[in-house]
């Protein structure tokens, strides 16, 4: 299983170091693949078995792009994993599919492990299944779905940070459809909590989870890792 944490714009550099230290002791006892995406200012060369990824970067080595970081900054910390296409980048920060595909292509050329996010807002969710799938499939335009270092994360936009969640049957149905687009590992994200993670991880075609706010506490995230470990042993 892949258990990933997107810390978003949370935890200072000092707090993130403490978080990673607490999490590392948990990961040492687990066989799960654990990925953490800290805030940009908290990126570092952490001495841990946890994979550290970037929440975002501009598709250049370096240059005149105020407020962005580039490949050179990630290379300094040995980071080779990146999150691309997250709904907050699409819907709040206005990234177009064309730019997202450009970013994907650049970091693919650099050999990065890419967690690529797709998802739909509530209005699309409440339309027909055909319209919903068409909306999701538009987010695959310009993306190499056969890229060997690709992980896809399905995150229904309406479920992120709201406490709402699709039924397990809904998750199974959508993941089944998305698996037809790519054989890459497929994560579920959107209001994943300690009390529902085990049920979600047991759904067919769910290869792991991408966790947001519920991962901000190392002990909570550790509990999710342990849940995945228990399932794998049974």
Automatic annotation (TrEMBL):
GO biological process, one term: gluconeogenesis
Compartmental location: Cytoplasm
GO molecular function, one term: triose-phosphate isomerase activity
Main location: cytoplasm
Keywords of the record: Cytoplasm, Gluconeogenesis, Glycolysis, Isomerase
Gene3D superfamilies assigned: Aldolase class I
One GO cellular component term: cytosol
NCBIfam families in the cross-refs: PRK00042.3-2, tim
The family this protein is said to belong to: Belongs to the triosephosphate isomerase family.
Protein name, as recorded: Triosephosphate isomerase
Taxonomic lineage from the root: Bacteria, Pseudomonadati, Campylobacterota, Epsilonproteobacteria, Campylobacterales
């Amino acid at each position: 299983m892949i258990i990933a944490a997107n810390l978003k714009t949370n935890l200072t550099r000092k707090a993130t170091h403490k978080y990673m230290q607490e999490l590392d002791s948990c990961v040492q006892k687990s066989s799960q693949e654990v990925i953490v995406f800290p805030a940009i200012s908290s990126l570092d060369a952490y001495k841990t078995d946890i994979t550290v990824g970037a929440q975002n970067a501009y598709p250049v080595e370096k240059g005149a792009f105020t407020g962005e970081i580039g490949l050179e900054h990630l290379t300094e910390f040995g980071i080779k994993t990146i999150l691309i296409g997250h709904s907050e980048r699409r819907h709040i920060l206005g990234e177009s599919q064309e730019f997202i595909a450009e970013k994907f292509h650049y970091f693919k050329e650099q050999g990065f492990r890419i967690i690529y996010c797709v998802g739909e807002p509530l209005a699309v969710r409440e339309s027909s299944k055909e319209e919903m799938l068409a909306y999701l499939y538009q987010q695959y335009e310009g993306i190499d779905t056969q890229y060997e270092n690709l992980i896809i994360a399905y995150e229904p936009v309406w479920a992120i940070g709201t406490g709402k969640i699709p039924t397990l049957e809904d998750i199974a149905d959508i993941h089944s459809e998305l698996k037809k687009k790519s054989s890459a590992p497929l994560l579920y994200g959107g209001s994943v909590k300690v009390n529902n993670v085990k049920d979600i991880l047991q759904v067919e075609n769910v290869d792991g989870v991408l966790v947001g706010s519920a991962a901000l506490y190392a002990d909570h995230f550790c509990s999710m890792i342990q849940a995945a470990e228990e399932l794998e042993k049974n």
